[in-house]
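User: Show me an example of a complex going from sequences to structure tokens.

Assistant: Sure. Here are the input components:
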Amino acid sequence: MGVMYSNGRPVYNTGKKTCKPKWNALDPKMCHPFDQNDTQDANQEIKNYQQSFESIFIKDSCDVEVTTTDTQAALNVQVGLQAAIALIISVSIADSSKADLVTQDLFEKIKSSQVNQQQTYIENSRGVKVSTTDTDIAVNAQVLLQVLLALIARLDIL
Amino acid sequence: MSNKEIKHASEKLIDMLVGTTLKRHNAEIDGTSLEEEEKEQLRKIVEDLKQSVEALNKTTKEK
């Protein structure tokens, strides 16, 4: 460890390398960290994408493409399916109190977890594509459709 | 178990679930009182919903 003097003061060289400048997405001359052989950074960042709450933050980044499930459309389909199930039961079971009980019972049983909430944070990134999928809601719609088809099969109108 | 087999099993399960629920409440699905026009409307509703769910699944798969 050599001692050097700067303005009459000793400066110790600890052998530590100086920190690399932080990568800046807005600087086109900087090499993207994913382009280097260091994959550890990539893994750490991907892990962070899976968080709770349905929100997406994009900061100091460019060329970022985000695709998410259209939750509103999926919910509309879900509501439509629920209404169709209730309608078919109501028109095909003569006793209205029985019809109500069957509807209530069926919806109780097929109740599943609702909207999958996610938080995506993209900072200092360039050329990133992020896709978030709401699997829960798609599965829920599929189950409701199967219930509807089971009812329709009994109604024998197809 | 392939995806197709799982789908078939789940369809059977849900069919059983609907059947047992109806049985528990001593209720029966009967479409004889429905008019032809109502049946046609119901068929149309089911077909539209089927397509909507397929579209939703397709978007999910594409991602």
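The lines above are the inputs; the final block is the predicted structure for all two components together. The radius of gyration of chain B is 16 Å.
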